[in-house]
Amino acid sequence: MTATTVVIESVGIQPRRRLAVIVSIVIVALLVVAVVASPFLQDAALHQDILSASLSPGAEGHPLGTDQLGRDVLLLTIAGTASAIVGPVVIAVGSMLLGILFGTLSGYRGGLLDGTVGRVTDILLALPVLLAAIVIGGVFGGGYWSVAALLVVLFCPTDIRIIRSAVIEQAPRPYVEAAQMLSLSRRRIMFGHILPNVRSLVITNMLLNVGFAMVTLSSLSYLGVGVRPGSADWGRQISDGREIMFTNPAAVLAPALLLIIATCAITVLGDWVGDRLAGDDEA
Amino acid sequence: MAWLLGQRLVGIVLVLFVISVLTFSLPHLAPGDLVRTLIGNRQVTPQLQEQIRAQYHLDDSLPVQYWDWLTNALHGDLGTSVQLQQPVSAVLADRRLPLTVALALLAFVVAVVTCIPLGVFAALRQRTALDTVSTTVALVGLSAPPFTIALALLYALAYYVPIFPVYGSGHGALDVLYHLLLPAAALAAGVGAMLMRITRTAMIRELDSDYVLAARGRGLSGRAVIGLALRNAAIPIVTSAGLVLTFLISGTIVVETIFSLPGLGQVLQNAVQYKDLPMLQGVTLVIAAAIAVIAMVADLIYLGLDPRVRSGRARS
Prior knowledge:
Chain B: It is a multi-pass membrane protein. Chain B: This is Putative ABC transporter, permease. Chain A has 283 residues and is mainly α. Chain A contains twelve helices and no strands. Chain A starts with a helix and ends with a helix. Chain B has a domain at 99-315: MetI-like (MetI-like fold), CATH 1.10.3720. Chain B has 14 helices and no strands. In chain B, helix 5 (88-124) runs antiparallel to helix 6 (129-143) and helix 11 (241-258) runs antiparallel to helix 13. Chain B is flat. The mean pLDDT of chain B is 83. At the A-B interface, helix 1, helix 5, helix 6, helix 10 and helix 12 of A face helix 1, helix 6, helix 7, helix 8 and helix 11 of B.
């Protein structure tokens, strides 16, 4: 058993808390609204006004005060939601798709392909994701989406492994043998018959990956990798706002607390969906 | 056993080889003219360009360059920092590396000492208040980015209620420890959450198994039974060490910068900002190699813990 499966298993066992799930759904819904609204808020949020720089929370017209460039912290934080959420979702889905493709092929067909995929994932897994992303992203520069693409590559080995072992477990089952007997094409067996049977694992893993990707991407933007200076982004806001923590703590605390709340809500939802789907599979 | 050991050793050598090749090729793959990058802010003269080409053996073939670079690195020579014009290894060895190692170790010790017992307790008292509280705290520790937890702690315990220092690493052993406590606590939250959850799950599974029932039936004390179960539960805990370690080191790099601690994280961030490639290579090599080696040590401990693996039976 690999370390990753241990964590994923253990994530599923916390006491079912209806309240936590409902709160998480509300949080995620609000985040989605903020993501949809953020393109329309960019102009207002990035509006600089040096005269009203570093105002404390509660200043007139600025409930959370302003940062050192005089930008409204509340607007800036809402506008930064897109940067915090959209990338991680794309990373998780991209990494899941690669995981499905290579994991299923490698697990069902075995042989040389399996050996090659196995070695490559072994090596990629030995690289610490954040370190590799800082170094590669830092050296090659590139914007938000190149860093997101890099993270897809760094995230997918885990997905490939998890899906591969689930497919290997399914392969000797009677329904697969029956499909083989009917001489269905390998592609149809793999993606039409085996894949639906491992879907709960795939989806749970994808949801947990959204959380991991949020942590990684925000850490990167906090360190200044993959995000332009002056754009609306929570990580960026935290690194900029650290200088004015005394005059306006909200400039740092608003994005930091939102990151904590958002990642926790996503984990709770991931756990919950995982439990429900696992229940479906047993039934 | 010997065969397994050999296999692991070959694996680690392969991983270290790949890491070294990747690190070596960084400057060659980086966009822009390598000689110009290595000159940095200094005045560009044909003389200096010649000197740089000679110093980095840039006119040799790539395999020869790799070999030279690797032998130098193995002898502790990681090149010269472009930004600081000092040997990379000297910069790293002077406080940077020790500070990061101290912080990571402190966080690890705090996490192990508090969270493994907590995981065992949570498993013994399932669905009680303690279990609920600890799983909720673990949720935050496991989900949230370590640097946000660090910020929250920094604000609460250094700004709002000024108990701890805001930044810096202090002087003298005790003062350094005092400066490192808050960052270590922030890091331990994430690592501890992982350890606690893994311990809790493993303990619940072990306590449910037949041998525990048999031991209880034979009248062993509660304590002895927990000891038995804990030994088996230790296997997944140790197996997850690689994951925990990666989390710990990645976290350290980021959390350090929140507290303005002059460790490897700060060096890494500066090197990225100034495109200081030799420095970047040095830091990457040191961190990646350290992670690979410690992961292997954890693997060996695991081999020692599981008698089935030790005797070479079972497990494919």
